[in-house]
Write a structure and sequence with these properties.
The protein is an alpha+beta fold. It has two domains: 39 residues, no CATH class; 53 residues. Helix content is 38%, strand content 16%. The strands form two sheets. Strands 3-4-5 form a three-stranded antiparallel sheet, covered by helices on one side. Strands 1-2 form a two-stranded antiparallel ribbon. The chain is elongated and about 50 Å long. The structure holds zinc ion (ZN).
């Protein structure tokens, strides 16, 4: 959720926050605030996913969604129906990919 909030980009442009930090939108700032808070209370670990991993997740996710579309054209959920709850990010986004249980939200995989 935090990443999604931060990714929101205000089409009117952003603004500079006190302290010289650029915020693309108020929603994005909200994401930063929540993230900071979660890091503070220890819910979220600081290291961000590297680009390679992000790209891998995107790829896996679109692959899976393409498969799902063929099977069920009416699926409306963000994550595939029948996805299991991820113990790492508490999102029902864990699906079987290439024989591995893989989380489409945080990229956690049983096969490393
Ligand atoms: Zn996860």
């Amino acid at each position: 959720m935090v990443e999604e909030l931060k990714a929101v980009f205000d089409p009117r442009g952003g603004y500079w926050q006190a302290g010289g930090k650029f915020m693309p939108s108020i929603i994005a700032e909200l994401g930063h605030v929540i993230e900071k808070h979660m890091q503070k209370i220890g819910l979220l670990r600081k290291p961000e996913m590297d680009e390679h991993r992000k790209a891998l997740i995107d790829q896996k996710r679109s692959e899976y969604e393409a498969q799902q579309k063929q099977q069920d054209a009416f699926a409306k959920a963000d994550y595939p129906q029948g996805a299991q709850l991820c113990l790492k990010c508490s999102t029902a986004a864990v699906v079987m990919m290439d024989g591995c249980m893989t989380c489409l939200n945080c990229g956690d995989s049983k096969c490393g």
